[in-house]
Amino acid sequence: MSDFSHLTLDYLATAVILVDGESRVIYLNPAAENLFEVSGKNLITNPLQLIFTDTGQLANAMQRALHNNASYIEHDLMLMTHAHNKLHVRCTVTPVQFDKPCLVLEFHPMDRPLKLAREEQMLDQTQANRLLLRNLAHEIKNPLGGIRGAAQLLEQELDKPGLREYTQVIVQEADRLRTLMEKLLTPQGHTRHSALNIHEVLERVRSVVLAEMPGGLTIKRDYDISLPALIGDKEQLIQVILNVVRNAAQAMHGHGRIILRTRIARQVTLFKQRHRLAVMVQIIDNGPGIAPELRDKIFYPLVSGRADGHGLGLTLAQDFVSQHRGTIEFDSEPGCTCFTVMLPLP
Ligand SMILES: Nc1ncnc2c1ncn2[C@@H]1O[C@H](COP(=O)(O)OP(=O)(O)OP(=O)(O)O)[C@@H](O)[C@H]1O
Ligand SMILES: [Mg+2]
Questions:
Q1: Confidence class for position 86, pLDDT limits 50, 70, 90
Q2: pLDDT top residue among 37 and 210
Q3: Distance in Å, CA 321 to ligand 1 centroid
Q4: Is the per-residue pLDDT at 101 higher than 60?
Q5: Beta partners for 331?
Q6: CATH of 194-344, one of 3.30.565.10, 3.10.150.10, 3.40.50.1820, 3.40.190.10
Q7: For ligand 1, is residue 306 a contact (CB within 6 Å)?
Q8: Which of these, 10, 181, 246, 312, has the minimum number of CB atoms within 10 Å of its CB?
Q9: What is the percent of the chain where pLDDT is above 70?
């Protein structure tokens, strides 16, 4: 490519990558480096797979452009970078002839409208979940008292001591259900917000989960210790991270690796509000991944993939995060599941 066109592309706001016929990178402009969080120097002559984890859809678009020898636009392309950023883009692929056949790839991010729609859906869903859970908890809690009382009365009338075992089961199970229902009825309302250090939250969760599952579990820290203080409810945030980390540890049956990562994020829009700064917390595990049939609904109440799961951990996590005006999302494939919590900074 001539120096002139090279320089022009450097100034473009659109992300551009130039590849040869074998999908090897010849050039990428600074906008592309920014969008995909990579450094151009290290990528030249390397395959596109060094930028994206899955290039299937993109390869398809490239093949079509080459085959028709004309520009091809893929309107709905999902790309995952190696830094676990999922990007929704429109991509134009144009064949060009330099000293060999090449392809110019232009990427236009489409994340904003999609992200807004997703956040709105999340807010609706959280409110619906909260209402459903409260009503359900209320309806279950009332008859439980009656069941428990009746079992105790019955126990007094029983002459065979062996039969008491059964009434004990009724009483104990009624107690267990009541504790669960109380958990659902109490969390709303009284939050106590104060300045807090997110790393204290993560460290607490780390030690709790390591104590629960000693042995095969490693929890690595990848902290940005320069992060400023958050304003939030510490107990709620501990519960959020604990629910997510515990899920990861349970999915790996206590044997695997979890990374707790913190980063600063700049100029982020959460629930239509622009924040200059936000804290990004990622919980990444190398377990089996979230079962595909659960992926669309894991934040719904009572959805669980575990025989002894209540399906409430992520519902509560989402509720607490949205009370902090933040978001919680995930990406998952076998061998890599990443939950990302974004919390705005004051
Ligand atoms: N990191 C993960 N890897 C694999 N599957 C996961 C992961 N995190 C969540 N899941 C799936 O999502 C489901 C829902 O999680 P959630 O925490 O809401 O409920 P639960 O863990 O089943 O029950 P509990 O109420 O006790 O937390 C889990 O049962 C599990 O199948
Ligand atoms: Mg759970």
A1: confident
A2: 210
A3: 17
A4: yes
A5: 338
A6: 3.30.565.10
A7: yes
A8: 10
A9: 94
Check if 236 has its Cβ closer than 6 Å to any atom of ligand 1.
no
Q: Which ligand is nearest to the CA of 290?
A: 1
Per-residue pLDDT, 1: 54
C-beta 252 within 6 A of ligand 1: no
Q: Do 276 and 267 touch, CB atoms closer than 8 A?
A: yes
d(CA 188, CA 185): 7
pTM score above 0.90: no
Q: 3-class SS at 128?
A: helix
Would the CB of 242 count as within 6 Å of ligand 1? Answer: no
Ligand 1 pocket: which of 304, 319, 321, 328 to mutate (most atoms within 8 A of CB): 304
Sequence-ordered list of residues with C-beta below 8 angstroms from that of 202, at least 6 positions apart, any chain? 221, 223, 241, 260, 262, 281
Q: Which ligand is nearest to the CA of 317?
A: 1
3-109 CATH pick, 3.90.226.10, 3.20.20.70, 3.30.450.20, 3.40.50.10490: 3.30.450.20
User: Ligand 2 center to residue 335 CA distance, Å?
Assistant: 19
Quickly count: other Cβ atoms within 10 Å of residue 109's Cβ: 15
- CB distance 94 to ligand 1 below 6 Å: no
- With the most atoms of ligand 1 within 8 angstroms of its CB, the residue from 295, 296, 298 to mutate is 298
Higher pLDDT residue, 227 or 82? 227
Q: What is the pLDDT of residue 4?
A: 46
Residues 172-188, mean pLDDT to the nearest whole number: 75
The pLDDT, as a whole number, for residue 206 is 95
Distance CA 158, CA 275 (A): 65
Q: What is the mean pLDDT of the chain?
A: 87
